[in-house]
Design a protein that fits this description.
Blueprint lengths: L3 E3 L13 E6 L5 E6 L4 E7 L7 E5 L9 H7 L4 E5 L4 H9 L1
Parallel strand pairs: 1-6
Antiparallel strand pairs: 2-3, 3-4, 5-6
Length: 98
């Protein structure tokens, strides 16, 4: 993958000058620390077990034709967008309300 950008729209992505971080919990009781340095996405298990959350990769060329061209043009310089699925239904609902 040439260039990717991480979708950090969730308010749980605090960051330093060089990295973004987020704790993720799944329904099986597992907790993972995700970290992004602008190029690589790493996961470190913190507690429990269970699988990693799903990752979605979308390139601006894969957007449906109904997407306004201004939006597609704005996303083009970002390369491929990587999004981590929220493994917690309750967290996803709370963020959607916020």
């Amino acid at each position: 993958m040439a260039h990717a950008s991480l979708c950090t729209d969730h308010p749980g992505w605090p960051h330093t000058e060089s990295r973004y971080y987020r704790l993720l919990s799944n329904e099986q009781g597992g907790t993972w620390l995700a970290s992004w340095d602008g190029q690589a996405l790493d996961f470190m298990p913190m507690a429990g077990d269970g699988s990693l959350p799903d990752l979605t990769y979308t390139h601006h060329n894969q957007l449906p034709p109904a997407v306004p061209h201004q939006l597609a043009d704005a996303l083009a310089p970002l390369g491929t967008i990587v999004r981590i699925s929220n493994p917690s239904l309750w967290d996803a609902l709370c963020v959607a309300i916020l």
